[in-house]
TrEMBL record:
<keyword id="KW-0812">Transmembrane</keyword>
<dbReference type="InterPro" id="IPR052528">
    <property type="entry name" value="Sugar_transport-like"/>
</dbReference>
<dbReference type="InterPro" id="IPR036259">
    <property type="entry name" value="MFS_trans_sf"/>
</dbReference>
<protein>
    <submittedName>
        <fullName>Uncharacterized protein</fullName>
    </submittedName>
</protein>
<dbReference type="GO" id="GO:0022857">
    <property type="term" value="F:transmembrane transporter activity"/>
</dbReference>
<dbReference type="Pfam" id="PF07690">
    <property type="entry name" value="MFS_1"/>
</dbReference>
<keyword id="KW-1133">Transmembrane helix</keyword>
<dbReference type="InterPro" id="IPR011701">
    <property type="entry name" value="MFS"/>
</dbReference>
<keyword id="KW-0472">Membrane</keyword>
Amino acid sequence: MRLRPDEDVSLKDLERGQRALVRDAAWASLTGSLYGGVVLVGFALALGAGPFHIGLLAAIPLIAQAVQLPAIMLVEQVRQRRKIAVLATTAARLCILALALLPFVGGATDPLTLLVGAQFAIAALGSVGACALNSWLHQLLPRDSLGAFFAERLFWATAVACAGTLAAGQLVDHWPFASRLDAYAVLFTAAGVAGFISSFYLTRVPEPPMHVPSHDTMLARLRLPLADRNFRNFLFFMAAWNVASNFAAPFLTVYLMRHLGYPLGTVTTLWVVSQVANALTLYLWGRLSDRLSNKAVLSVAMPAWFACFVAMVFSAEPHAHAFTLPLLYLLHLLMGTAAGGIGLANGNIGLKLAPQGQGTAYLAAISLTGSLAGGLAPLVAGSLAQWLETAQLSVIVQWALGRPLHELSVFTFTHYEFLFLLSAAMGLYALHRLSRVEEGPRISERVVVQQFALEAMCSVNHLSSVGGMLGNLMSFGRLFDRRMHNRAVYRPEPPPQDGP
């Protein structure tokens, strides 16, 4: 097993490495689906975790991104990225494998404390590995084929993650033995083994020697983004978005399982619906961001995301009913669609605003801002949820016809529903911060919605022989294109101002 850099990377080596990277992503996604996300929250709840523990578990991976700063120095010093990435990720997977022992821990040892400690170790080691891997792939992969390569890698990673999550939920729900904690032990063991296979494929990827190191200090490079007024406004927006989104999202699984009473299998199915919607609409969002702007995509996708959280509160009013689950599937479908646009546009606008040759410092500033803001949000939300555990806010209508007094409860907010509403309110401030970011001409939200519908219609036409035939026989498509072009009036955006 060779972990040192290769002196020469041939075209054959590159093709072999790309195939290995696709397999690595698939096995790594299987590891994440069997250990993290919905499964990890379900395991924590089974151990008796409260809202603060859930918030802490959600915050750790984001806060651990700060480890990338010393990791950058480690990579620059050692200059063997494959060795760092393989050793760090393999150590993280050993920690995942060790989680299989937690259901059997007894005595005075608190398994929740061990779970939090293991989660921090896994996240920190994963952050070191990701730092080395990002630098490695940035130099290895040719620029002219990035789209096709990452599309294939993302497809297999998403497909395997969905299958793994569904299987994990069904295993826990239909575990034939007395203790369901044993089912989680099986899942963590399988996740660790899948992680080791992922590490093996990572060793098969060639590593070219690193470029000559820069003599600028890391602190000096990180000052550059803060001196750029427009990029500073973008950092304010990223902080606001990460606080608003991570204030409620980590508690959605808890809300579905504890408040609405759905089993883990149903919750994992909802997650898969969201991921499939995300993957299927990513291409449409990409076309829109290229044709219009990333800021225009965000101005539509972000309100849709937060509106779904508000609608979640009313999906079970006054209590869970026959239409609650279909509504939840619809909301997860819409949230997955919106999340695809938000993730794509946030990444693109950061790359677009970063000057050529200074990408490392600018992207590091985005990562640090997002991780610190996003890590703080679930900690505060978890503490608040603990305090609001018995709180209730009701809107009641009373009326009298004669002597008896009648009343009707219009809606009632309890516990985690307060977090969803607060998250949506914070989303309004995030949209305000977005308005201060400059990115080309201003485009109305109406144009974005129309263009998204048009792209969806075009995709259906490509998939449907009937749609394609109608498009060839009739000229409505060209008339619609012309009408859309005439109605898309672009107005220059006023220059943003600093400050909140």
